[in-house]
Amino acid sequence: MVYFKKINDLLTSFDLKTSGKWFVLSCLIGVVAGLGAIVFDALTQFVQHHSLVAIAGFEHPQTVGEYSFYQDHAVEVDFAPWLLLAVITLGGLASGVIVYNIAPEAEGHGTDAAIDAFHNKRGEIQPRIPIVKTIASALTLGTGGSAGREGPIAQIGAGFGSWVATKLKLSARDRRIMLAAGMGAGIGAIFRAPLAGALFAAEIMYSNADFESDVIVPAAMSSIIAYSLYCMSLPQSLRFMPLFGNELHHTVDSHFELIPYAILSVVLSLSAAFYVKTFYGTNKLFKRLPIKPMFRPAIGAFLTGVVGIGLFYLYHQDMRALSVLSTGYGLLQEALTNASNVGIPLLLTIAFVKVFTTSLTIGSGGSGGVFGPSMVIGGCIGTATGQFLQKMWPDLVTQPEAYGLVGMAGFFAGAAHAPISTIIMVSEITGNYALLLPTMLASTLCFVLCQRVHLYQKQYPSRLDSPAHRGDFLIDVLEGSRVADVYDPNRKIQLIPESKTLDEIVHSLAGTQQHYFPVVDDAGRIIGVFSEDDVRAYLYDETIWKLALARDIMQPDFLRVTPEDDLNTVMQRFTAINVEALPVVDASDPGILLGMLHRKETIGYYNQQLLKHKRAGEELEPA
């Protein structure tokens, strides 16, 4: 705790708006997110090597840019489909038992939980959640569950950012920024896409075209550090290689190609809607099962294995059919480099079945991300569509693999409402920036066509709707209003001479509805104010009724306002000293009393102005 106090003292020495503070915090988050990505990757490979590979004889294909810690430790075990089914079921059971007994909040894909914490929980994430999420996701993925790696990594970074902010006693706003920066760092590291990670953290919070602008710079710094640290754990030959290698050099040869890319966008939008509907429909079905929640992931994993093995035999024991399990990146790598070797039937089958295996794995309560499967589904649909369009327009569509790259971006942009970060993400993980034009077209069209599709259900439409920004966008209805617009200078006010005795004051109160009384001197100038409460303090001591004067019970140091004072300032004064009326005096001579401004009148005026703005069509929050 002493160390946290010293760090807190150091950080608070920076101005909150300076980049110095965020540089320190972002670097710290980036280091932890980078280490978290390394640990999660190693743990997942450990589980996979000692379960899928050592027991079932199944080693899932990887992309060109991925690195296996066990590549020099080959295990000679024949593939046994039914042992694969046992492994994936036990993995789902272990994941469910851990999650539902330690941190039930860690179920599912994780990104939604981080988004919800940002909007509704002041950026607070329980420290145990990232740890449980890491272990459970490694078990799910390592045993063959169909899921992605970004969910747990995002929660590791987000959870650490939230924890540090809490320990340093930072504001809720700062905690939210650190949570989002942690998300961006995790994404940037695991996908080796630092720019996309930063933009993803800012964009994924909202379903409309809105950004959490305060997050971008801290998230960029965190993402750079996490990406660099993660890459240092890789061999030199892979450190700067994109996830899918350096050989994807597709181009756009004609502007007329945008027409088939627009057709692809429609196909992707329909597919994204089917994916989201299936995912949450499956989730609802599992929640209705009359069994303990901890056993649901095992059932989902078992059904996932059955579907995968069934497809394996359907395609005459083609190992590529098992891409519906685990990440599926190996098949996607082949589809993006040589689509003709895969063929339209297998690509569409993998895409269609991957929707169900992902829904069974994660929708049942299993732990893992949904971005990875989305890339496989979108990439397979894109490549298959490209091959089909090539047969229709061979002179126009010459590179069906390019449609796979665009499909990856468009599918997730529509499902998750994150077009900008997805465009950059796909470009970074494939190392191909020549397809920016069709990728932008497809992502934008899918985003527009999928307005009713919500993969992340905790997103808010915009900053205006988010509880995290409640009050930021209220229109100031008192702007430009003055005291003169409210108080009545003709209202009769009972003035109390300073020489008036308490006995006379007590008897005069019985015949008036006034609660605050200005005290004036012989020249009629105001010198103080007292209220009914000030008089009550003397009611039980009649011996001083004829001795005490108005000047004895009045408050000589009192707040006053002028007709030209701004009503916002006046409302703050009412709140600060908790009074119901303030004397209005002449601006050039504070001794001349012009009237009294009452709190009730000011609030009434505010509500009148509020009603006018509402009638004009502006959305405001009542006082």
Description:
- This protein is mainly alpha-helical and 623 residues long.
- Helices cover 56% and strands 4% of the residues.
- The protein folds into 2 domains: 1-465, Clc chloride channel; 473-610, CBS-domain, CATH 3.10.580.
- It has helices at 2-12, 19-56, 81-102, 111-120, 128-142, 150-167, 172-190, 194-203, 213-232, 258-287, 296-314, 329-337, 344-363, 371-392, 400-416, 419-430, 436-449, 502-509, 532-536, 550-553, 567-577, 599-615, and strands at 496-497, 516-520, 526-531, 581-585, 593-598.
- The longest helix is centred in the first third of the chain and has 38 residues, at 19-56.
Order of helices and strands: HHHHHHHHHHHHHHHHHEHEEHHHEEH
Major sheet strand order: 1-2-3
The stretches of 5 or more residues where confidence is low (pLDDT under 50) are: 10-17, 618-623
Structural class computed from helices and strand pairing: mainly alpha
Number of helices: 22
Number of domains: 2
Quote the average pLDDT: 85
The end-to-end span amounts to 41 Å
Total DSSP E strands: 5
In terms of quaternary structure, what is this? single chain
Class of the largest domain in CATH? Mainly Alpha
The CATH architecture of the largest domain can be named as Orthogonal Bundle
**What percentage of the residues does DSSP assign to strands (E)?**
under 5%
Could you name the CATH topology of the largest domain?
A: Clc chloride channel
Instruction: Give the proportion of residues in helices.
Output: 55-70%
Rg result: 33 Å
Tell me the overall shape: elongated
CATH H-level homologous superfamily name of the largest domain: Clc chloride channel
- Main sheet makeup: 3 strands, mixed
